[in-house]
Amino acid sequence: MAEHDTETPFSDLVRTRRAELGLSLRALAERCIDPETGATPITKGWIERLEKGEPVLTPRLSELRAMAAGLQLPLRRLQDEAAVQFLGMQRQAEWSGDSTVRAVVARMEELTPEERADLAQMAELYAAQQVARRETSKGS
Q1: Is 7 helix (H, G, I), strand (E, B) or coil?
Q2: Does the predicted TM-score (pTM) go above 0.85?
Q3: Cα 28 to Cα 101: distance, rounded to the nearest angstrom
Q4: CA–CA dist 47, 50 (Å, integer)
Q5: Cα(37)–Cα(2) distance, rounded to whole angstroms?
Q6: Is 34 in contact with 65 (CB distance < 8 Å)?
Q7: Most buried of 18, 24, 65, 129 (most Cβ within 10 A)?
């Protein structure tokens, strides 16, 4: 069983995302199908214990793939949060106090190089627009 301190990013992500999707514990478990094997390795009880902060076995890759499918999230994001919670690993980079930046980065891996370049350009334009807006509001 996994021992963890106070940081529970994997549990928090699962709980939050399940709520966003409006899924019951059972419905989420039924959606957690490993796309590579077709197996359904996640049980309602495991999700319930995870969300309550009770001890659970550290998820294996096949279970993380199934959770990614069920939660409609990138596998990389689940792997990162599980590594922090269950293995005590440090995040590769802590760009944000919340999970928004990690979520965007995880999604970036799904894009083609051209799509990533387009998104980076949009981010630069948006950031410049926001800086200009703040500067304008300061002068008012």
Answers
A1: coil
A2: no
A3: 25
A4: 5
A5: 25
A6: yes
A7: 65
Q: Which of 19, 41, 23, 20 is nearest to 32 (CA)?
A: 41
Each residue of 86-127: pLDDT tens digit?
998 876 555 555 667 767 777 787 888 898 888 888 888 888
Q: Flag whether 51 is in a domain.
A: yes
Residue count (the chain): 140
The residue type found at 70 is: G
Mean pLDDT of 55-63: 96
> Where do we find the tokens 């039924």?
30
At residue 97, the pLDDT reads 57
Residues 83 and 117 both lie in one domain: no
Residue 75 lies in a domain: yes
Q: Which amino acid is at 101?
A: V
Claim to verify: residue 81 and residue 124 sit in the same structural domain? no
Q: Across residues 78-83, what is the average pLDDT?
A: 92
In a domain, 93, yes or no: no
Report how many domains make up the chain: 2
Structural domain range at position 42: 9-87
